[in-house]
Amino acid sequence: xxVLLLLFVGSGCAALIYEIVWFQMLELFVGSSSVxxxxxxxxFMGGMCLGSFLLPRIIxxxxxxxxxxxxxELSIGVIGLLLLVIMPLVGRVYVSWGGYGITGxxxxxxxxxxxxxxxxxxxxxxxxxVARWVQTxxxxxxxxxxxxxxxxGGAVLGCLLAGFYLLRVFDMTTSTFVAVGLNAAVGxxxxxxxxxxxxxxxxxxxxxxxxxxxxxxxxxDRRSPTxDRRSPTxDxxxxxxxxxxxxxxxxxxxxxxxxIWTRLLSxxxxxxxxxxxxxxxxxxxxxxxxxxxxxxxxKSIRNPRVALGWCQLLNVGxxxxxxxMLMRSLPYWPINTSIxxxxxxxxxxxxxxxxxxxxxxxxxWGASFxxxxxxVARKGGDPGRLVGGVYAANTVGAIVGSVVSxxxxxxxxGSQHAQQVIMIVSGISGLLLLAPVEFSSTxxxxxxxxxxxxxxxxxxxxxxYLVRTVPTIPGILVAYGRYAATWLGQEGDIFYVGEGLSSSxxxxxxxxxxLNYHNAGKVQASSQPQDMRLQRMLGHFTTLTPNEPKRVLxxxxxxxxxxxAVSIDQHVADLVIAEIEPLVPKVVSEHFGEHNFHVVKNPxxxxxxxxxxxFLLTTREKFDAITSDPLxxxxxxxxxxxxxxxxxxxxSKLNPGGTVTLFVQLYESSPEAVxxxxxxxxxxxxxxxxxxxxxxxxxxxxxxxxxxxAPHFNVDEWEAKLNRPEYAAVKKSLGEVGIYSALDLFANYxxxxxxxxxxxxxxxxxxxxDLRLQYLAGLGLNLYQSDAIYRDILRYKQFPEGxxxxxxxxxxxxxxxxxxxxxxxx
Length: 826
Description:
- There is one protein chain.
- By secondary structure, the chain is α/β, with parallel strands linked by helices.
- The protein folds into three domains: about 1-205, Growth Hormone, Chain: A, CATH 1.20.1250; about 220-230 and about 235-490, Up-down Bundle (Growth Hormone, Chain: A), CATH 1.20.1250; about 530-730 and about 750-785 and about 800-810, Rossmann fold, CATH 3.40.50.150.
- The chain contains 31 helices and 14 strands.
- An eight-stranded mixed β-sheet has the order 7-6-5-8-9-11-10-13, sandwiched between helices. Strands 1-2-3-4 form a four-stranded antiparallel β-sheet.
- Helix 1 (about 1-30) runs antiparallel to helix 2 and helix 11 (about 305-330) runs parallel beside helix 16 (about 450-470).
- The radius of gyration is 30 Å and the shape is elongated.
- The termini are far apart.
């Protein structure tokens, strides 16, 4: 049994590595929108559910359980290797046919099913396969719970190994090889143990075939001691049905809570890829602890069904605890996460805060699984069917919970009401199990007759009270995330807070009248001079560089200022904004219209609710210019918009003479991350240029520019263009941010690819296969070295001969302006 436990640790580790890698690979072509994530998660868990349910009904119980398990593991490894080849092919087919609407969603589901169902069917079958090696006695059921706990323990290792090491240091291919190696080792060891044991080693083997036809319901003389202690009111099948319903509701609550708490914790910790690994690890550790405790209890408890019911009722209190901690306590802990520049200390802090806030719930949900097994177990029954049925019921609930919470509950009702729904469902689940027992028990004395019902009524009353106490999400958490405590008393007026499908949004106004747009727990855009300058530069460079920018794509709506700058160019006839969060355009159209020229309501504007990568992959249209202003590259998923492959995709969607511009932040980033962004962009656009945006003489952020043909700027012609009547709105827009002429605009020159080879020489290129940037940027989350990074870039700056032209006087002025800009000549 200890050897089997070790095998399950390895199996769980491999499974989580696969899950992380496969999701990352699939999101590259089916997208990373909430709908796409829901499709992927539903398919993955659906495969696990089907596998656990079907194996006991397809594989004969006369097959050696360990040999079946070993072959399943080896098959998973083979499929894991094949998917490295198959997924890109599926991606190409999907891109040729994919799109939007019902057909598009069905195609996403089909692509996910082709890739995920074969291996996940096998993964789901592993626990029922090994279950046939134990007896359906209290002790045997206890071991099944330990196997489940070992699998979860391995999942924790896999989550941390993939999230903090394999994908950070290597890539998806290497991570897959590690998982395949684990499958091979587990399979080989399983075959070795199987070769040294007899299939008849399981005392229940003779009963398996007999029980196959009656769904493991056996006569009273073959019940386990646990069954003998069941209430007389239990009537076998109906009682078992209630347990399956309860464990399904438990799965619903567990995955719903994980989705909601992950959103809240990602605001508090920063939504980096490391944060998601930490949150998942904390949740899995709780499940593993709970499953181990439940396994120990299941061996000796008198009535596991009652224990399972109380677990569900106690979860009402556990969810109330987590809701209070996440929305009323942790955001106000006196912590400034920027004090230490070493992000690893923050990771340690985040682990501790995660355990403190959410551990009780996962422990109770983890304990529910072995208790449910004990509650439906019958001596002599098929352990494979026992485990497969309970696991499938739990997984079905989990699928519904993850989809409903991510696509409906939070978006329609908010985090507060979503958590209240979880508490109500937990209470109903407990009541289903406890009411028939507690209200019909026949204790020896009249005094004891009312003890259990009274306790249940009190528990339900306390639960109802706790449901009412769930707090609302604080605006300061949505607005300032991990810095919420440091903004207390100076946050200004946070007058709008909204929770969308994939992110939470806030709008605030400080005493000076400056508006801030908040997303991912930080200010993403504002009417501050430095932010307005960057956004206006980004938008106007995008339309002024091509000769006739009739059709333009803006990636990321944000506050709409960049898109607004694009929209006022009279040549632009069709403006497409690709925004992943449907709440954002509604918010900015209402609150930032004055600053973004009411771009969302402009008849030439078409807003596409999708992640930009998926949109570009599936659209058949081309553009004269594309500008990208996505979330910070450390936000999980954003790095897909900074890969070499994505820049090549964007370049392929340009018409002749087209231009791509990109916002690259220098603050809250590391020198390695910025260098990776710049070098990756220059790999695709070897004639690329960097334009600097400084504030108070210091580097702040930059605009990258890439063109299909080699760029050239005649300064006098640009000045004449800006002075024409049709460009009056553009000139006024630039003047509002302190750029009064073409000379002022070009004075922001900071370097070009040919001159910056010394700077980018040791950079790590960000590819689809590794998404290196999200790991580099995630380590620089607490760094504020924007000026130092900018000055490092400027060390390589020299006047770009051949890039600019104009009259002798103009060129002299331009040389002086570029030399006197912050940083100056080397």
